[in-house]
Amino acid sequence: MSTPPTADNILQSPILIMAKRAALMRAQGRDVIDLTLGEPDFNAPPHVLEAAHAALSGRLTYSPSNGIEPLRHAIRMRMKDIRNLDYADGQVTVGCGAKQIIYNAFQATLKSGDEVIVPAPYWASYPAMIKMCGARPLIVSTTREEGFRLTAEHLEAALRLAKSPKWVVLNAPGNPSGSLYSRKQLLAIAEVLRRYPGVMVLSDDIYSEIRYTNDPYQTLAAVAPDLRDRILIVDGVSKVYAMTGWRVGWGCGPTPLITAISSVQSQNCTQTSTLSQLAAVAALNGSQALVKERNAIYRQRRDSALSVLGACEAIDVACPEGAFYLLPRIRTIKDDQAFALILLEAGVATVPGSAFGIPGHLRLSFATDESILIAGCERLVQKIKASV
Ligand SMILES: Cc1ncc(COP(=O)(O)O)c(C=O)c1O
């Protein structure tokens, strides 16, 4: 049984720890290339900034804890347009980023002893949030050969072992893998889930609009409509519109769960900023041209970085289908955390794979200028060569 968390046993995000160290070294005048943060180096689209300026002349009052109506409406229209999923107004709620929606959902549904199935590599915050709610993450490792995707077989095995499984986490494109699921893979997962009717699915689709394939995006709720009452889709403006600091994310799912998430929100921070919500309406309703343009830039950066890393024999790296991370395995290292520190001293900040449940790897964000990214990858390769 898990012990309820205290301030002492809540781990700080390892991503933020590495980013802070890099920032400190830079403040001391050291030349450090920072490839740690999953934060676009672009600004919010100009029409979003204009809408926010205009909104400042009005009164920015409290909003409903599930978000302002025009934003909920824009989210529903977006889900219909791009996923062909209909959500009623009561099935959508807005929070301070996708992160808070996920936390509120866990807070509303998990109790001590419950389990959440989390495929590794995972976004480091899932296990931390699950533990903060007194529950237990059940980590299911995936391999490079499986494309770092949860297979139906491994899901079934984990569910069979679990004593009190409450949620399964699916995140595609994955952070840090960049992997997507095909319709066939999701259908196989759905088949397993039908045998476990009490288990809900967190479908974290935050990177869904940052993809480098032409295939349509596949999300479980669209692939298996009969499971929709058990699926929470989470998304937001942070990544796709480069609006990380605005803190707007949302959840779409069954009415009782959405109501519960909004109730938690109403008690812990009332709502996310009304100004940010108005900006998010502009992001969703305005031109989407910039999203395409930026994806082309990310893709170019990904390919350039891969050509540097791919030329090094000690590195094994997959080509991500989406998001903006590379996850190289360094064949010659024993301890990724120690190596990340050595690399930091050599002037490149990365996040050790252990933070994502995948030791032996490093995560590099390519949401940064191409020449800086390439210089960072070159430093990495040089250090690997010097270490063997
Ligand atoms: C997989 C994943 N989910 C959710 C989030 C949270 O995003 P937000 O800024 O909307 O809270 C992140 C941010 O890094 C992420 O990588």
Automatic annotation (TrEMBL):
Ranges where the Aminotransferase class I/classII large domain occurs: 31-374
Gene3D superfamilies: Aspartate Aminotransferase, domain 1 (3.90.1150.10), Type I PLP-dependent aspartate aminotransferase-like (Major domain) (3.40.640.10)
SUPFAM superfamilies listed in its UniProt record: PLP-dependent transferases
Any one GO MF annotation of this record: transaminase activity
Enzyme type, top EC level: transferase
EC number from the UniProt entry: 2.6.1.-
Keywords recorded for this protein, A-Z: Aminotransferase, Pyridoxal phosphate, Transferase
InterPro entries with a match to the protein in the record: Aminotransferase_I/II_large, AspAT/PAT-like, NHTrfase_class1_PyrdxlP-BS, PyrdxlP-dep_Trfase, PyrdxlP-dep_Trfase_major, PyrdxlP-dep_Trfase_small
Cofactor(s), names only, from the UniProt record: pyridoxal 5'-phosphate
Protein family per UniProt: Belongs to the class-I pyridoxal-phosphate-dependent aminotransferase family.
PANTHER family: ASPARTATE AMINOTRANSFERASE
Protein name according to UniProt: Aminotransferase
Organism: Pseudomonas atacamensis
